[in-house]
Amino acid sequence: HRYVAVHMHSSKAGLLGRLALAGQPRPPLFYSPHGLSFQDRRFVLPSLASTALERLAARVEATLVGCSEGEAQLLRHRGARAVRVVENTVPDAFFALERRPTTPPVVMTIGRVCRQKGPEFFAELAARFHIAEVPAAFVWVGNGDAASEATLRAAGVKVTGWVSPEQV
Predict the structure, then answer these.
(1) pLDDT above 80: residue 153
(2) Where does the pLDDT of residue 127 fall: very low under 50, low under 70, confident under 90, or very high at 90 and above?
(3) Dist CA 119 CA 39 (whole Å)
(4) Angle at 151 between CA 86 and CA 75, to 5 degrees
(5) Residue 120 phi, psi dihedral angles, 5° rounding
(6) What residues contact residue 37 under an 8 Å CB cut-off, 6+ apart?
(7) What is the DSSP letter of 133?
């Protein structure tokens, strides 16, 4: 097979793919982690190992794609040379939705509850809305780390737990 490019998605795939293809004739490599495993400082040894492996893999020529400028900065700090940002986007169809100004907005995120997804930030945002008495509902669709789920709930965020793709 002749490939135009190889895209690796996730920390493990990015690490293994770059190391496996190092030093070989190959198409351009693109790696988008969408949540860097070395950010979880609760597990010190795995975090240090992940950081060291990421620095090693950064020696392989590849374009790393962050889903935010913050993620891109973390990748640069770990030795990545070529980093681009492709922000998560809102589909144009969202802006065509009927607006109901009398109904409080729902602020929702979908994904596993883990440090990389920023549950503390989401909880803080919900708390600020509550303190400012701005009516809004906050919902996290997904499940994960129990302590982070508790933080979300304490801030008034509804955590749905895992739901099927059809329910989402």
Answers:
(1) yes
(2) very high
(3) 13
(4) 30
(5) -65, -40
(6) 11, 12, 46, 47, 50, 116
(7) T
Choose the most confident range, by mean pLDDT, from 7-21, 44-58, 71-85, 112-126: 112-126
Task: Give the up-direction half-sphere exposure of residue 14: CA atoms within 13 A in the CB hemisphere.
Answer: 28
Query: For residue 77, how many other CB atoms are within 10 A of its CB?
Result: 11
The amino acid at residue 45 is: L
φ/ψ region of 104 (left if φ > 0, alpha if ψ in -120 to 50, else beta) reads beta
Lookup: tokens for 112: 């596993």
Q: Cα-flanking dihedrals φ and ψ of residue 50, to 5°?
A: -65, -40
Residue 27, token pair as written in the block? 């198409």
Compute the distance between CA of residue 101 and CA of residue 82 in angstroms, rounded to an integer.
44
Strand (E) or helix (H) holding 66: strand 63-66
> Could you tell me the two tokens for 66?
């962050």
**Phi, psi at residue 126, to the nearest 5°?**
-60, -45
Average pLDDT on 86-90 reads 78
Give the model's pLDDT for residue 69: 86
Residue 155 identity: A
Residues in the chain: 168
Judge contact between 65 and 53, C-beta under 8 A. Answer: no
